[in-house]
């Protein structure tokens, strides 16, 4: 069981890594052309709005509602014609509703962006509104792409949809470099790249959808709204929107506070979060995805001992990965940011702003990752209410602290609010585990706390020689340019930190580390 988790996690992590790394390169491109200027903030705000709506409606609709309903049609042996009618009705409904939202968004864009910016910044408001209008159609094309993804995933065809984020990132990266030479400013070039990337995501999947036997075309609106399957999709979506909305409103409020806290705060927070998301995407999301099917199987067959063991073991893996990364990042944060982002527009002030946010963001890494591991325990037993309540509690803490700290600590205060809210969310999830069937909460909490404290102690011990060595390495190699001047100290400091960390794990005969090591040897 545990060996399978490691093996599957490694494979899925490798696939996710490609997309996440390209996402980081996309942010590096943004840093090169926009830095933490007012244009960078304008682009960040303009992209935030359609992107939040995408997460709330498109992704939510497909994962929670469309795929289960589509699979129900296939497994209940509905006729091909009846299933095709449902697919086309859903496609028509999604297209119609998102087209209406996009049209309205383009119309009221100048009023929307005023929520995020100071009233006296007329030029910045006008530019942000223009960028919003360029990118708002992205919501339409990415919703269509999500519909195609739902059809393919429902047929258990995953490769085309898994490849589209790579196409999107490449389109934005190359589009920015090419179009920035011809357009008035690079923010507009990047915005066109975003829209083109969304179109490419939809267009790339369309031939695969047709090949799978589901030729797409529109039906009448009356058929779309009255189709039984489509109505079932809508019924499944509505209850989950409240919980999803809490996360999206969280982002919007935090961005609004950042936009009013000063120039560069919005973009510095986004640069910092991209570094954090790279780690989360590779490890936490992958492990959470891998354990959900097994947890569901154990719950259905009432194999509660294995259920508890897998959940606790997965959280320990996250502790073993994220806590050392947190301490290493606190020691070397400046060099990480300089290596990844520093360029012609990303200057020393940009480094300082991003480092301030990153130091607080990275402190909450374990809690954010743990939340993505614990939540599948609830989903495995068919409980979506309790994680939603925990998310709303975290949302309230985040907004309260962000309001209280943003004007005094600026971006650092907003980043701290997110990490503190993630801690509260983790505590709430552990508390709610008591309400699940056959969960040994006391043992899970005790084991998690004890193991996490051990890894924290080991990380502190390893950080002392790493910090001393890091200072020496920066003095010796810091003047060798961006790549070598930051890369060599980072690599050598990682070697020192890792050497002491591995030594401590070996001396304590850490079971989790030994299990991973044995599994890696077995894969060779």
Indicate the overall shape.
globular
Distance between the terminal alpha carbons, to the nearest Å? Answer: 19 Å
Mean pLDDT: 85
Instruction: Give the DSSP E fraction (strand runs of 2 or more residues).
Output: under 5%
Task: Write down the secondary-structure element order.
Answer: HHHHHHHHHHHHHHHHHH
- Strand-pairing-aware structural class: mainly alpha
What about the largest sheet? none
Number of beta-strand segments: 0
Radius of gyration over all CA atoms, rounded: 24 Å
Low-confidence stretches: 1-9
Total of DSSP H or I helical runs spanning 4+ residues: 18
Task: Quickly list its features.
524 residues, mainly alpha, 0% strand, globular, disordered N terminus
